[in-house]
Write a structure and sequence with these properties.
The protein is an alpha/beta fold. It has helices spanning 52-67, 77-83, 103-106, 126-137, 153-164, 172-186, 193-210, 216-221, and strands at 26-29, 32-35, 91-95, 114-118, 143-149, 226-232, 239-241. The chain contains 8 helices and 7 strands; from the N terminus they run E-E-H-H-E-H-E-H-E-H-H-H-H-E-E. Helix 6 (172-186) packs across helix 7 (193-210). It is globular. It is an enzyme of class 4 (lyase).
Length: 242
C-alpha cells in the first residue's frame, strides 16, 4: 500500500490485521523509494489499522492542502501496483454525485484511500447501507463520513417542491421524497432554508447509518468505527464538520 503523504511516521496501531507474505513491495512514490522491511507475523498491521479520529484528521489535513493549493506528491503507477490486489481505505464516504464534488481531490488522497458511495443528495438507501457494511466488515475502515455540499441541486429541488409546489419529473420524485423531511425540519429554523436543509439532510443520512443494524450500528456504538458529518463549500474548497 502506498500512502506517501498520510503515512509518514506511521506507527502500527492497536487493530492488528495479518498481511500475507514475508515482505512488502518496494515502491517509488513522489520520487522517493518506499521499502517495507520483513516483519514477524505478530507485528504486521494493515495500512488502515488506525483509529477513526486519526483517519478524520488525515482527511481534514488533506482538505487544508487542497484549499491552499498545496497537494502532496501524487502516487500513480506505484500506488496502482500496490493496491491492485487489496485495498485498505481509511474512510468510507457518502457524498453527492455532483461533478464538482470529487472526494479524492477535496481531501487530497491517493487512490485506495477513500471508499466512496455517491448518489445525488448524498442520501442513504439500502444499497448504500450495504456498501458501507462491506467497507466496515470486509475492508475494516475506521471512519464513516457523510459529506453534503453547498448549492446542492438535489436539496434545491426538494426545497422547490416544498416551498414553491414545483413538480419534478421521472424518478426525481423518489429522490426528492427522501430529502423532503430535512427541508420540512429546516423550514421553522429561519435563515437560509437551503443551507439549513443541506446540513439537516447530511445529518439525516448519518442517523440512518448510525441506526442501521446488524453491522453498522454496533460498530459505531462500540467505538470501533467513527461516524462524522461534514459540508463542503464549492467556492472555498473548505470542508466543515457539522
Amino acid at each position: 500500500m502506498c500512502d506517501c503523504r498520510q503515512n509518514r511516521g506511521h506507527v502500527l496501531s492497536r487493530r492488528s490485521l495479518v498481511l500475507g507474505g514475508a515482505t512488502l513491495l518496494t515502491l517509488t512514490c513522489g520520487g522517493r523509494p518506499l521499502r517495507a522491511l520483513p516483519l514477524p507475523a505478530e507485528a504486521r498491521s494493515a495500512p488502515n489499522d488506525i483509529g477513526g479520529d486519526e483517519a478524520l484528521a488525515r482527511l481534514m489535513a488533506g482538505n487544508a492542502r487542497y484549499q491552499a493549493d498545496l497537494p502532496g506528491p501524487t502516487c500513480l503507477s506505484a500506488c496502482r501496483a500496490a493496491i491492485a490486489t487489496r485495498q485498505y481505505p481509511i474512510a468510507a464516504m457518502v457524498c453527492c454525485s455532483d461533478s464538482r464534488v470529487a472526494p479524492e481531490l477535496v481531501f487530497d488522497q491517493d487512490g485506495g484511500q477513500i471508499f466512496v458511495v455517491r448518489v445525488a443528495g448524498n442520501i442513504v438507501d439500502t444499497d448504500g447501507i450495504a456498501s458501507l457494511e462491506y467497507a466496515v466488515r470486509e475492508l475494516n475502515v475506521p471512519l464513516l463520513l457523510v459529506v453534503g455540499h453547498a448549492r446542492c441541486g438535489a436539496v434545491t429541488a426538494a426545497v422547490n417542491v416544498v416551498r414553491d409546489k414545483i413538480e419534478v419529473p421521472g424518478h426525481l420524485t423518489s429522490l426528492v421524497n427522501q430529502i423532503r423531511p430535512a427541508v420540512d425540519a429546516a423550514a421553522p429554523l429561519g435563515g437560509d432554508l437551503l443551507a439549513n436543509a443541506i446540513i439537516l439532510n447530511a445529518r439525516t443520512s448519518a442517523r440512518k447509518i448510525a441506526d442501521s443494524a446488524p453491522i453498522l450500528a454496533p460498530a459505531i456504538a462500540g467505538g470501533r468505527v467513527k461516524l462524522a458529518t461534514a459540508i463542503y463549500d464549492l467556492a472555498s474548497g473548505a470542508v466543515t464538520l457539522v
